[in-house]
Design goal:
The structure is a single chain. This protein is an alpha/beta fold. Helices cover 44% and strands 17% of the residues. It contains 18 helices and eleven strands. The strands form three sheets. Strands 2-3-4-1-5 form a five-stranded parallel sheet, with helices on both faces. Helix 9 crosses helix 15 and helix 11 packs across helix 15. It is globular, with a radius of gyration of 22 Å.
Length: 373
Amino acid sequence: MINRKIEPAIRSALSTGKAVILLGARQVGKTTLADSLFSSQPGTLLLNGDEPDVRAMFDNINSSRLRAIIGGAKVVIIDEAQRIPEIGIKLKLITDQIKDVQLLATGSSSFDLSGLVNEPLTGRKREFILYPLSFGEMADHHGLLAETSLLEHRLVFGYYPEVVCSPGAERNVLNEISDSYLYKDILALDRIRKSDSMTRLLRALAFQIGSQVSYTEIGRLCGLDNKTIEHYITVLEQAFVIFRLGSYSRNLRNELKASRKIYFVDNGIRNSIIADYRPIELRDDIGKLWENFLVSERIKRNRYLENHAKSWFWRTHQQQEIDYIEELDGQLRAYEFKWSPSAKLKGPKPFFEAYPGSSFQAVHRDNFSEFLL
């Protein structure tokens, strides 16, 4: 079994009288992690919100009915809890009225679950996000040398657990995840029905990773207005398919102030959308794959470390740019990403004049592990 880095933090949140909310895309291992957390503990009740009879069971429920359902269970796990109407109120009933029960709710949409439970469970919950497997987790699992040797493979096929555990069948697994999740669950989320438009949008975003995204330009490609583009991107972000990186701006008049880049949470999902699984040596998008991999893996790392670093990119109207910037404890750290170790890089002078004391590092395939561990 591959140990997840978030597990110790979740364990520390148990037995505090608070509900644990575990968010993350489908197929990233939420149920497996829940099983690991409580496998040695008897009296666990597992309910799946995807099942119609479970949803019906929660209709018009009260505390007495909840006690009858829970019985002698000491742990209640509700999978895909966002599928249960008014789930926030029902989770609050459990935490308020049945205090000797540890509640764990999982969900594959941060809007549908987190948005529904935030107000009812204020002060009564701890929230965590589980991503696909990370470079750090796999390095811990079978060694840094072994995982580094698989770098080119990971750039193409990504880190979804079933993909990692299905050598030789990665294409089929990724296609199944995309078809069953992206093109069914996502399109059903928030009543999105224009599947052709969403498909065109996903492909447009997949080709533009690492570039500044113009909603107007994408709208022309997809036949959608800016408002609809914004809405679709928000839904994709809330479903943990993509994430946005904003531009850093504080001192310079010529800094971009309202721009954004969009990355995919997983390289494999990105490549499945454009149906391109060619090996690295045959591709012309290695720079995009490399940047998406490094940014997404760094986000996972920081989230699991709970270091609360803030992330941006930086660019001026004169096209001077830095791929990635972090701010932590008042310190700015700038990073430039290049696949080739021989690339000679030096940060743009205006940035360091505007932000003295900032550090700069080039991240390439010979030193990337230091950036991700």
